[in-house]
Design goal:
Blueprint: H1 12-23, H2 33-41, E1 67-73, H3 80-93, E2 98-101, E3 104-106, H4 110-118, H5 124-127, E4 130-132, H6 138-144, H7 151-164, E5 167-171, E6 179-181, E7 184-185, H8 186-193, E8 196-202, H9 207-220, E9 225-231, H10 240-253, E10 257-261, H11 269-276, H12 294-304, H13 312-317, E11 323-327, E12 330-333, E13 338-341, H14 344-347, H15 356-366, H16 380-392, E14 397-403, H17 406-423, E15 431-435, H18 444-448, H19 453-456, E16 467-469, H20 480-494, E17 498-503, E18 507-508, E19 514-515, H21 520-530, E20 534-538, E21 562-565, E22 577-582, H22 583-587, H23 609-624, H24 627-642, E23 651-657, E24 660-668, E25 673-674, H25 681-691, E26 694-695, E27 702-705, H26 713-734
Parallel strand pairs: 1-5, 1-8, 2-5, 3-4, 8-9, 9-10, 13-26, 15-16, 15-17, 17-20, 20-21
Antiparallel strand pairs: 6-7, 11-12, 12-13, 14-22, 18-19, 21-22, 23-24, 24-25, 24-27
The structure holds pyridoxal-5'-phosphate.
């Protein structure tokens, strides 16, 4: 389903109290970690960790108030409203404050009748925000009456209503696949509300099919079905279907039946209590019934898991988030708290989380083939993807070799470049040239050509020798000219023993978002050509639109000999990598079998069909959603807003290329003296941002901003505001 690409939640909810804080000179008092942990256990939020609502308002969460259940029918006219009256009556009898909501209603007076029957004081326009007179499908009824249905409005009334009651029963309209608008189904609404669902089914013939389809659809959308209630819509002696259907449905779907509501002669609370009390399983409707699993999950994580690039001693003392859901630019944790994903889940996400188009592509592929080997066999999505990649890649790259991650994409290029010369009889050409602050991955091959000492120093005895060329950080040193001159010197004197130059073109990500001036890459390419050395472009980070163009090489109009892709390749869905190369390189491996000159490399999951299907859908979306076109104004906006960071006393430099940005913190702005590594300035700023529902991950003293390309301007604005606020909070505290 196509959704409006506007904000999933309204980040403006957050702005009012953010603005107050941003004007504050004094830092908010640091919350104590134990208290934070303890209150997370209780499923509450700490005062210093506001979910971004007005002071005094009740946070959403799994506390007493705020429990909500969506009630859908398998079909229209199955008696939902009566069932809701019965459930509400039973809950009220237990002393709970019950609210109801019927977001859209077409014809009839269900909402009014619920309000009166249950004596609810909420305003009718909150119980039923959208009312059409005629009993048509909502998308038709509202269109005919010229009423625009806004999902944001429904969702914000819903949030308000759930905070008002112990239990809020939300009534659907018809079945799950009923369109509220042409681009928005009842099922989308349930998903956006993020609550569990109970299905109301009729008892008689035909119910099995409808109920199972509804359960399937819900599961497909990641909505939890807590159970099925059967409702007898006519007075009739139960026949075979009435007697057997509930058990059949339970057996096939493994979904529990919550009970049967018989036909009620008299619709009064007394009659309902008399007939239904203790006959219906109310567990899904009781608040606090679903205790937060976070405590156990965090304990199990700490017991069993070892996280990458992480000092686990710190981790064991920390209060980690466990992410459960994603939607658009947001991630949701197991406490139901929503975070803006400011680094695209470590630079991978492109079109947003949980994108319907990529979801559908992976699901469709899953229903056909999950995996078959690429060693000796081929598969459909891998072929389709290769063709599409060649079409979008710089001209001249014609062959695609698959692997599983960025490191292997580079490793493949390094081995291919090396072996090409071996195959060609130029056996002295064995060395790799790379830059002093490069990062190409974590396998031993890529660590060898990595320049960031912190990542590679300890493994140096395991790595192979290389030629490393000094490269500026673009901040304290800026002489890119010298890098090119040094390269020319190295190539002119030693090209006979050099296989390839490996670079991250235009933006060196892991080094702290170092941006090259225009023309540098082109000159490197020209030198490589002149001295017959391959150019390997590692676009694992820069590929797929991050720099504003599909590939960073396009900024200089360069076609490298090897193009290494991973991170954004699948839109951030699945691990997959590709190394693209030229026909010349490919042909350099065409020999007779007996010559033993094949490329001896391949991973078991190479060209996994699910991952390739996601990657194909990712590329389709660039086209369908005009991703790069829509990105340009957002890049300009980001650039404008980044200027304000220079007003901060500890910001030494702000670097940006397209949608990749780095903000470098310095201890002293006059001397550009860096913060010491162990001051963990970046980490602390990111932790602060998390309190404002923004996820960031730094590179040392550099705060990285790299949101999904699909982020809305408003969300981007929020990301920038929170980042600035977090930098202030921390840097003002560090050195008052
Ligand atoms: C992330 C990255 C890699 C490594 O990719 P993995 O999938 O983590 O192995 C290689 N090169 C660059 C430029 C990267 O940013």
């Amino acid at each position: 389903m196509k959704k409006e690409k506007e904000d999933f939640v309204n980040p403006l909810d957050f702005f009012d109290d953010l603005d107050e804080d941003m004007n504050e000179k004094v830092a908010i008092e640091e919350e104590k970690p134990q208290e934070a942990a303890a209150s997370r256990e209780r499923g509450q939020r700490t005062p210093a960790n506001p979910p971004g609502r007005q002071p005094g308002s009740k946070p959403i969460g799994r506390q007493k108030k705020g429990h909500a259940v969506f009630i859908t029918g398998t079909d229209t006219g199955v008696g939902k409203t009566t069932v809701i009256k019965v459930i509400a009556t039973l809950l009220k009898e237990k002393g709970l404050d019950v609210g109801v909501m019927k977001p859209v209603q077409c014809g009839g007076e269900d909402a009014k009748s619920l309000k009166e029957f249950l004596q609810i004081t909420d305003h009718l326009s909150d119980i039923n925000p959208y009312l059409a007179k005629d009993p048509h499908s909502p998308h038709v009824a509202f269109k005919r009456e010229k009423i625009q249905v806004h999902r944001e409005k429904i969702l914000s009334i819903f949030e308000k209503m759930r905070r008002r009651h112990d239990v809020l029963l939300v009534e659907g309209a018809g079945g799950l696949q009923v369109p509220i608008r042409e681009d928005y189904l009842v099922a989308d609404l349930v998903k956006d509300m993020g609550i569990d669902m109970v299905i109301v089914s009729r008892l008689g013939l035909g119910t099995i099919n409808h109920t199972l389809l509804t359960i399937d659809k819900a599961r497909d959308m990641g909505v939890h079905v807590s159970g099925v209630i059967f409702s007898a819509s006519e007075k009739k002696v139960p026949g075979v279907p009435e007697k057997t259907n509930p058990a059949t449905i339970k057996f096939i779907s493994k979904t529990s039946g919550l009970g049967i509501i018989p036909f009620l002669d008299e619709l009064t609370a007394e009659a309902m209590l008399k007939v239904c009390k203790n006959k219906i399983d109310l567990k899904p409707f009781l608040p606090g019934n679903k205790p937060s699993a976070t405590g156990q999950l965090v304990a199990d994580d700490k017991n069993y898991v070892w996280h990458p690039f992480t000092q686990m001693k710190d981790w064991l003392e920390s209060d980690p988030l466990v992410i459960e859901r994603g939607e658009g630019s947001y991630l949701m944790d197991t406490e139901g708290k929503k975070y803006l994903d400011g680094v695209s889940s470590l630079w991978v996400n492109i079109h947003g989380h949980n994108h319907p188009h990529i979801n559908a592509a992976v699901k469709a592929q899953l229903a056909r083939l999950e995996h078959s080997t690429f060693l000796g066999l081929s598969n459909i999505p891998a072929i389709e993807l290769a063709k599409k990649l060649v079409a979008v890649a710089p001209k001249g790259l014609e062959k695609v070799f698959y692997s599983d991650n960025g490191s292997t994409a580079v490793e493949v290029a390094v081995k291919m470049a090396y072996q090409y010369w071996q195959n060609a009889g130029k056996t002295e050409k064995i060395k790799m040239v790379h830059l002093s602050n490069s990062y190409h991955g974590d396998t031993l091959g890529t660590v060898s050509i990595g320049g960031i000492d912190l990542f590679s120093q300890v493994y140096k005895n395991l790595t192979f020798p290389t030629i490393k060329i000094d490269s500026p950080d673009g901040f304290r040193t800026t002489d890119f000219e010298k890098t090119v001159t040094d390269l020319e010197y190295v190539l002119s004197s030693s090209a006979h023993e050099i296989a390839a130059l490996v670079v991250e073109p235009v933006v060196q990500g892991a080094a702290g978002m170092i941006v090259w001036p225009d023309g540098i890459l082109k000159r490197m390419k020209d030198l490589c050509e002149k001295y017959e050395v391959f150019l390997i472009a590692d676009e694992v980070a820069t590929g797929f639109g991050r720099t504003g163009k599909m590939f960073a090489c396009e900024h200089d109009g360069v076609t490298p000999d090897f193009l290494c892709l991973a991170k954004g390749l699948t839109g951030g869905y699945l691990p997959l990598a590709a190394t693209l190369t030229t026909k010349k390189v490919f042909d350099g491996f065409l020999f007779d079998y007996k010559d033993q000159k094949s490329f001896f490399h391949g991973h078991t999951y190479t060209a996994n069909p699910l991952a390739c299907a996601a990657a194909v859908a990712n590329l389709e979306l660039f086209h369908k959603e005009h991703t790069l076109g829509k990105l340009q104004p957002k890049i300009n906006f980001l650039g404008e807003r980044l200027k304000m960071f220079y007003n901060l006393t500890r910001v030494g430099q702000v670097r940006q290329k397209g949608f990749m940005a780095g903000i470098e913190l310095v201890k002293d702005k006059t001397t550009n003296e860096p913060y010491a590594w162990d001051e963990k300035i970046g980490v602390r700023i990111c932790n602060e941002a998390r309190k404002r529902n923004v996820i960031l991950r730094p590179l040392g003293n550099v705060i990285v901003l790299m949101p999904p390309l699909s982020i809305s301007k408003r969300e981007l604005d929020y990301l920038l505001q929170v980042t600035q606020w977090a930098i202030r909070q921390v840097t003002q505290k560090v050195s008052p």
